[in-house]
Amino acid sequence: MTYGKFVWFHFIVFRFSYFYLINEFKYNKKQHIYVFIILIVKAEFRFVKSKDHKYIKAFGKHLRKLRKENNLSQEDLANDADIPINQIGRIERAEINTTLSTMRAISKALNIHITELFDFDK
C-alpha cells in the first residue's frame, strides 16, 4: 500500500469511527474533543512505523510457527517468558518492533537458541 493510499484509508476509517461514536452516544461538544483526541492517538499507534515492516511481519509469522510447534498458546508462552500476555500477539501480528531482551526471554521459554528466532526467509 502506498503512502497516499494509506493516509486516505486511515482518514476514512478515522472519520467513520468518529462519526459513529458521536452519533451513537450523543456526546456534548467538550466530549467530542476528547473522543477526537483519543481516536487520533489510537490511530497513530495502530501500525508499526518502520522501514523494516516486512521483516518484522516475517519474524512474527516465524514466532507463531515456533510457538505452535511447541504446542503453546500465546498466554502460555507469555507466562513462560514472563512478559505481558498481549505482547506475544502484538509481536506475531507485527504491531510492535520488539526488544532484544524480549526476544531472549521468548527464546528461553521456547527452549531454543536466540538465533533460531531469526532462522526464516524474508
UniProtKB/TrEMBL annotation:
A Pfam entry, by short name: HTH_3
InterPro entries attached to this UniProt entry: Cro/C1-type_HTH (IPR001387), Lambda_DNA-bd_dom_sf (IPR010982), TransReg_Diox_bact_type (IPR050807)
Residue ranges occupied by any HTH cro/C1-type domain in the UniProt entry: 63-117
SMART domains: HTH_XRE
Keyword Transcription regulation: yes
Stretches that traverse the bilayer: 6-22
Protein name (Swiss-Prot/TrEMBL): Helix-turn-helix transcriptional regulator
